[in-house]
Write a structure and sequence with these properties.
The complex is a heterodimer. By secondary structure, chain A is of the alpha/beta class. In chain A, 45% of the residues lie in helices and 13% in strands. Chain A starts with 5 loop residues before the first strand and ends in a 6-residue tail after the last helix. In chain B, helix 5 packs antiparallel against helix 6. Chain B has a domain of 126 residues. In chain B, the strands form three sheets. In chain B, strands 3, 4, 5, 6, 7, 10 and 11 form a seven-stranded mixed sheet that branches. In chain B, strands 1-2 form a two-stranded antiparallel ribbon. Chain B has a two-stranded antiparallel sheet with strand order 8-9. Classes of the chains: A alpha/beta, B alpha+beta.
Chain lengths: 775, 594
């Protein structure tokens, strides 16, 4: 049975977020909550929460239209609808009695063989099914999402002894393929996997900071990026998630773990936290937390709390040599003599031995544990990968030298030479049986990182590489800093096209970095502009145009498979591909105006082509120009692949993959399908553009915005240059304009703008602050 | 004994014809700085330099400073000259009228400093250091500190110092050990030893105001833990006059190669009372405002020496009769021709002159921009000017002082054996010039400042202030047939500089040692291109003014411009080749193999 329709009970933040993600997958979902007393509309809670979904930032919904797939209701009137629901997710308050009441209510109404799961994070499955019939227990499991459900990739799935294996299988597949989640199969133990280890980490990080007398800045400077955790560190993280969450989690963990569990021994009362919560210092959602912004007297002073006295004072940046030294790896960090190094060792020595002692108690193998920490707490490396980075033998030796107990599993890893090993081009992990086993990827998962283990690139330079991903398909990978595109990236793209044309069948453009590409390397362009090396910039535009054109008209399919940001030149790469298979979390846009230029690698031209009227659209040369002008001049960025279709950055025929790990395989399959269907490159577009009258029209609109103060002086200049390109320069709509002619206009407009002072000021501001300059 | 005549014609030409300094009077606060006033000031300064300072230059060098029991006596005539100097109001020339200064533009003061340094570099040290102290206190001092010290510094009755260097730390000020202990009354007690303190002790003024870098008790290690203090020799009393003697004493003076009439002191602070200037631990940034001004001032010292050396050499080359011209006697009535007939002597004289005049144009340009950066009503224009000054400060400091030393050496060479003996004063110029390449950041450090800091600031924004106007100017100039001979070689050198900059940006990103290896050559390449730009602009003016009474002046400009383009600018090719050759050959030899 596939899941065609779902229901979420409990329309709080988690419940509605889960419903949104189900809707994002294109699956209809019923969202239910209780009927409040004296409510005029008995479904008011669910309805209000759908309204909230539409307004929330970051958006839980990938498109406004997805909201239409969420049907609001209530548990009094709408249980009859459960008859055709395949999966019911319970996401109500964490109380066993209320949950069980609900389960009993559902039991009579739900479809036979449907699955019921709870999103509990603290209650064991065994306890939830006490007193419930076997018919319920066999269809029941725990699906533990992380907040916010759209963006956090982890989904922990916990089955009980009575749960049908097919139910787990079904949820796993749906969660993986449809919801795009990384599934970790956890055992029915307190906190499951991620919270069990993550909460311990947080406790250890706080406790050690207090014991070693670190400032909050110092602690965060170590507990963030240097150990591979998010940059908020520990106290910044507590401010973010809310200080009041800590006591809840702590109490539930302490109550459910055995008395001899290291967590129970580690945890202690923390009067400062209690006092802060009582005074409303609950973090960013409250008056502030360990950090606060003091706006007294109109200023904006970042302050931090003194962990000893509880007094706030101006935040002082931490200066720890160890934090800088951490670039050399974890071993260098924990071996560093300063307070930061001692702190890192204190926390990691406890955390990693704890993690090693928990397998197989919380999960069958270390791979699940590492995945859970990476996708649930956004760690760069899981605990076992961290141990391997230091060297398991070295780690064990140091533990012994400090008389710290070494778990047997960790000891066996030290003797075997680590938790992971690459053998025969495959990644293997150490099992609790003492033997290495291959890390299995699900069907339909193809990772470039795996391919790199077994092969060498076909082509490579400093900014990009070309890999053979089998079946005659090559993969072009960008790997410059932030995947900014430069002459080297373009050069390798050209070489890749030549190579595939001669020796292979199809090309996929994909990488596993956080962002597909943030666009052309503005730093390089700015530097060249600053010293007046105009030909260097002009050449780069020419090179980009030539490569994009070669890609569009290659005699074989080129499939772009972006994930994360695909901006500027990254977007233009996507626009010129024969087809796109995009990760659902792809953020595409032509943002060039933000740095005072316009798309110069054919982006203007492609947007014009895409905006050409369909059979039902109004005719005439102006509408498509207006559409492209609006998209580019406002630097619109699609917040998802679904939205990218609405904005025409993607075609309706382009594919969307929910799970990133499946993106490359899907893109490859798409390329092979195109080949099988007899791929023919597109015919060059013939455009009819309005010319000077069209430009005048666009400028009039901008002039209106300028009068209202919505467009600033340089916006007007940039818009004028854009209008010149999109309207076709001196074009006459009775004549046909070629793609090359439009690109020539793009190039001239780009060069004109890059020579202006306000454009260079925008570039400089963007590069130094990361934010656009309004001038 | 060389004589000195202030090069007023060239100064006027650079200020008013080339740079349009008459426009300065339009800026707020500069209403009095009209062309008439400025010309009169320069004329007076020229007289003072020639009549009062130059005559005691040689004697001052011969006699040197005297140290006895903690006191320093300057050479004969210095005290009297200094009294006249402050009587003339020269110490307050560029200072704020609020504190008794004359509020004239910095660029005017640049010209005055040049003249002082041509005439007597040692003498110039005393008011020069005071001006540095004035700048630091004016920008970072409390209103009380300003009221106490600035009027005295402006009047010149008190002088100033910069106490940075310690026995174990020069370039790396992060190593400073001098301590400052807070006192109950808000003052501090300074303890430590400072060395190489110019004007640390002398007999010219009633009081000496030391600006001292020291460390507070809880200061972080390194450069971020240094604070700036003001520590007067005599603590001002309630009426604002020099009061009780402070616990800062001169332990000895250095015996050195040159600037012997400038007292270079070891200063011992023994719990001396001092007050914090600016924020705790932010002493370096306060000191840098002082240091940037001081670096430009040192550049002017180089220019002054070069001018003096040139004037001495020209006088001698016209006077000294030896041999006949290669093409036959030019002065058959004399026993021999003057040596100025010889191509190689001319090579030396023209090298001195073309570089000196080019340096004057570039440095006064920077001076003008410095004034614009402080006084222009448009914030954007101020920022642009500030960028250009920041970019060119290391170039001015290093290139002008390198040129000063080189010109002084050429001066000795023109004199032959007479240059080598003390009597003529030419060897003094070599010795005096030598320190300018060292202090206020060695010229090697200036190169690092340029490539390491100035190039990367604002993603290369500073570069734009130079490359854009220069590039645009040269492109336009190349369109004019009469300018081609100047614009074309300049454009070639400019293109080399562009390429070198791009090379440096890429190579330096990958390996910082590449930037370090290229720094000195790159700075020199930069300077030569800046000079080429100025020479083009000077030639363009001269081309328009070849008639009239001053025609010979403009003719000479054109000749010098051609000499620069054909015989000096080609050095840019060598520099480009060496700097882009990379660091390999510098770093290959292991330290123990040296």
């Amino acid at each position: 049975m596939t899941i065609k329709k779902a229901c979420v009970v409990g329309a709080g933040v988690m419940g509605s977020g889960i419903a949104a993600q189900i809707a994002n997958a294109g699956v209809p979902v019923l969202l239910l909550d209780i009927v409040p007393k004296d409510a005029a509309d008995s479904s008011v809670i669910a309805k209000a929460s759908i309204d909230k979904l539409l307004k929330a930032d970051p958006a839980p919904l990938m498109s406004k239209s997805a909201a239409k797939l969420i049907a609001p209701g209530n548990i009094e009137d709408d249980l009859e609808q459960l008859a055709d629901i395949d999966w019911i997710v319970e996401a109500i308050i964490e109380r066993v009695d209320l949950k069980q009441d609900l389960y009993r209510k559902l039991e009579g109404k739900r479809k036979k063989g449907s699955i019921v799961s709870s999103n509990t994070s603290t209650i064991p499955l065994a306890q939830l099914i006490v007193g419930l019939p076997d018919s319920f227990a066999q269809d029941f499991c725990i699906t533990h999402f992380f907040n916010p459900p759209r963006y956090m990739r982890l989904l922990e799935v916990v089955g009980g002894s009575k749960t049908r294996p097919e139910a787990i299988q079904q949820i796993t597949e749906f969660g993986d393929i449809m919801l795009g989640k990384t599934i970790v199969h956890a055992k029915d133990t307190p906190g499951f996997v991620a919270n069990r280890i993550g909460v311990y980490w947080m406790q250890a990080a706080v406790t050690a900071a207090l014991d070693l007398g670190l400032t909050v800045e110092e602690a965060d400077a170590i507990m963030g990026r240097p150990i591979g955790a998010p940059k908020t560190g520990i106290f910044g993280l507590l401010d973010l998630v809310g200080l009041d969450l800590m006591p809840h989690v702590d109490l539930s963990m302490a109550a459910s773990l055995k008395a001899d569990d290291p967590y129970v021994k580690l945890r202690r009362d923390w009067p400062l936290l209690t006092k802060m919560i009582a005074e409303g210092y609950t973090g960013r959602k409250g008056k502030g937390g360990f950090y606060r912004l003091n706006t007294d007297g109109g200023g904006r002073v970042k302050e931090s709390i003194d962990l000893k006295t509880g007094a706030y004072a101006t935040s002082r940046e931490a200066r720890l040599d160890s934090a800088d030294a951490a670039k050399g790896g974890l071993k260098v960090l924990v071996s560093h003599q300063d307070r930061g190094g001692q702190y890192a060792w204190s926390v990691l020595s406890r955390l990693l031995t704890y993690a090693a002692s928990l397998v197989p108690e919380i999960a069958d193998n270390i791979v699940e544990v590492d995945q859970a920490m990476k996708t649930g707490f956004n760690f760069k490396r899981g605990p076992f990968e961290m141990i391997d980075q230091m060297g398991a033998a070295w780690f064990v030796e140091r533990l012994r030298s400090e008389k710290i107990d070494v778990p047997a599993f960790l000891d066996s890893a030290a003797k075997a030479g680590g938790f992971y090993k690459v053998e025969g081009g495959k990644l293997n992990y150490l099992g609790t049986d003492g033997a290495y086993h291959p890390v299995e990827r699900a069907d339909g998962v193809l990772l470039l990182s795996d391919i790199k283990l077994i092969s060498k690139p076909i082509l490579k330079n400093i900014s990009a590489s070309l890999w053979d991903i089998g079946d005659g398909v090559a993969c072009l990978e960008f790997h410059s800093k932030m995947n900014a595109l430069d002459s080297d990236s373009l050069g390798l793209m050209k070489q890749a096209l030549d190579h595939v044309g001669k020796k292979m069948k199809a090309l996929v453009i994909h990488n596993e970095a956080e962002n597909f590409s943030v666009g052309a390397n503005v730093g390089l362009a700015l530097f060249a502009a600053n010293v007046g090396l105009w030909p260097m910039i002009d050449d780069l535009i020419g090179q980009g145009q030539a490569v994009m054109k070669a890609m569009k008209y290659a005699p074989f399919p080129v499939v772009a498979a972006p994930s994360g940001m695909a901006l500027g030149g990254g977007c233009e790469t996507v626009l010129h591909a024969s087809a796109v298979q995009a990760h659902a979390e792809t953020y595409i846009g032509l943002v060039e105006v933000g740095v005072g230029v316009i798309p110069g690698w054919g982006g203007c031209k492609e947007m014009l082509i895409r905006a050409q009227p369909g059979p039902k659209d109004p005719k005439g040369p102006m509408p498509p120009v207006a559409v492209a002008f609006e998209t580019i001049s406002l630097a619109k960025v699609a917040k998802s692949a679904a939205e990218a279709k609405e904005l025409k950055f993607l075609r309706t025929s382009d594919g969307i993959t929910m799970n990133r790990d499946r993106l490359l395989a899907d893109a490859k399959a798409r390329a092979l399908k195109m080949l099988a269907d007899g791929y023919q490159p597109p015919k060059p577009a013939e455009l009819r553009l309005p010319g000077p009258t069209g430009k005048t029209g666009l400028n009039l609109v901008v002039h209106g915005f300028a009068l209202q103060g919505k467009a600033l002086a340089h916006d007007v200049t940039v818009s004028d240059a854009l209008a010149e390109v999109l309207s076709g320069g001196k074009a006459d709509h009775t004549e046909i304009m070629t793609e090359d002619q439009v690109m020539k206009l793009e190039r001239a407009a780009f060069m004109k703008l890059v020579k202006t002072e306000p454009t260079l000021a925008r570039m400089e501001h963007m590069l130094t602050t990361g934010k656009p300059l309004r001038n | 004994m060389p004589t000195y005549t202030a090069p007023l014609d060239d100064m006027r030409f650079v200020l008013f014809e080339l740079l349009g300094a008459d426009k300065l009077a339009e800026l707020p606060g500069f209403g009095d700085a009209t062309q008439d006033v400025v010309e009169a000031v320069l004329e007076e300064a020229g007289k003072f330099a020639a009549n009062e300072l130059q005559p005691i230059n040689h004697s001052g060098d011969e006699e040197g400073c005297h140290y006895e029991n903690g006191t320093v006596t300057t050479p004969k005539g210095f005290k009297e000259a200094y009294a006249k100097f402050i009587e003339g109001g020269w110490t307050g020339l560029p200072c704020d009228p609020e504190f008794g200064g004359q509020g004239l533009p910095k660029v005017v003061n640049f010209a005055v400093e040049e003249m002082i340094c041509s005439a007597n570099l040692s003498f110039g040290m005393y008011p020069g250091l005071s001006n540095g102290a004035y700048n630091a206190l004016a920008l970072h001092g409390t209103s009380e500190q300003k009221a106490t010290y600035l009027p005295k510094l402006v009047a010149g009755t008190w002088s100033g110092t910069m106490c940075l260097t310690e026995p174990h730390c020069g370039t790396d000020l992060g190593l400073i050990k001098t301590r400052a202990e807070p006192d109950a009354d808000g003052s501090y007690k300074i303890t430590g030893t400072k060395i190489f303190i110019s004007a640390g002790e002398h007999d010219l003024t009633d009081n000496i105001v030391h600006l001292v870098l020291a460390r507070l008790p809880d200061a972080p290690a390194g450069i971020r833990g240094i604070s700036l203090f003001v520590c007067p020799k005599f603590i001002p009393n309630t009426s604002g006059e020099a009061g009780p003697r402070n616990a800062v004493r001169c332990g000895s003076i250095e015996h050195k190669m040159g600037i012997k009439a400038s007292a270079t002191c070891v200063m011992n602070f023994d719990g001396a009372t001092a007050w914090l200037v600016g924020q705790p631990n932010k002493g370096m940034s306060a000191m840098f405002t002082m240091m940037n001004a001081a670096r430009l001032a040192v550049g002017m010292q180089g220019l002054g020496i070069a001018e003096a050396a040139y004037q001495g050499a020209v006088m001698y080359a016209k006077d000294r009769l030896q041999m006949r011209a290669l093409s036959g006697a030019k002065f058959p009535d004399k026993p021999a021709d003057p040596i100025i007939v010889h191509p190689d002597v001319r090579r030396m004289l023209l090298t001195m002159r073309a570089l000196t005049e080019g340096c004057r144009a570039v440095s006064y340009w920077v001076g003008m921009e410095l004034d614009i950066s402080r006084h222009h009503p448009d914030e954007k224009r101020r920022q642009e000017a500030d960028d250009l000054v920041a970019l060119l400060t290391p170039v001015v400091k290093a290139f002008l002082t390198d040129h000063g030393f080189h010109a002084a050496n050429l001066g000795v060479q023109v004199f032959g054996g007479h240059g080598y003996i003390r009597e003529w004063g030419m060897e003094q110029l070599v010795r005096d010039a030598r320190i300018t390449q060292i202090y206020e950041g060695t010229n090697g450090i200036q190169g690092l400042d340029l490539v390491g800091r100035k190039l990367s600031l604002g993603m290369g924004r500073l570069l734009r202030r130079f490359f854009h106007p220069v590039g645009a100017y040269l492109e336009a100039a190349a369109e004019k047939p009469e300018m081609v001979e100047f614009a074309l070689p300049s454009m070639k050198a400019f293109a080399k500089l562009q390429q070198a900059t791009a090379w440096l940006a890429q190579a330096g990103l990958k390996n910082p040692e590449e930037a370090g290896a290229a720094a000195t050559d790159y700075l020199r390449l930069f300077a030569l291109v800046a000079l080429a730009y100025m020479w083009c602009r000077m030639a363009e003016i001269a081309l328009r003014k070849q008639a009239g009474e001053k025609a010979p002046f403009y003719e000479a400009k054109l000749v010098c411009a051609r000499f620069f383009m054909t015989r000096l600018l080609p050095e840019t090719n060598t520099l480009f080749a060496t700097l882009t050759s990379g660091s390999q050959t510098l770093m290959a030899l292991p330290a123990e193999a040296f």
